[in-house]
Amino acid sequence: MEDMELQTEAPLYLRIAQELRHNILEGVYKAGEQVPTEAVLSERFGVNRHTLRRAIGLVASEGLLRVDQGRGTFVADISPTVAVRYPIGERVRFSETLREQGIEPRYELLRAITLPANARIAEKMEIRSGEHIAMVERLGLADGRPLKVASSYFPLSRFPDILARLNETPSISRLFAEVYRCDHRRRTTLVTAQAVSPEDARLLGVSYNMPVLVAEAVNTDEENRVIEYGVTRFRADRTELVIQPENLSG
Question: Fewer CB under 10 Å: which end of the chain, C or N?
Answer without folding.
Answer: C
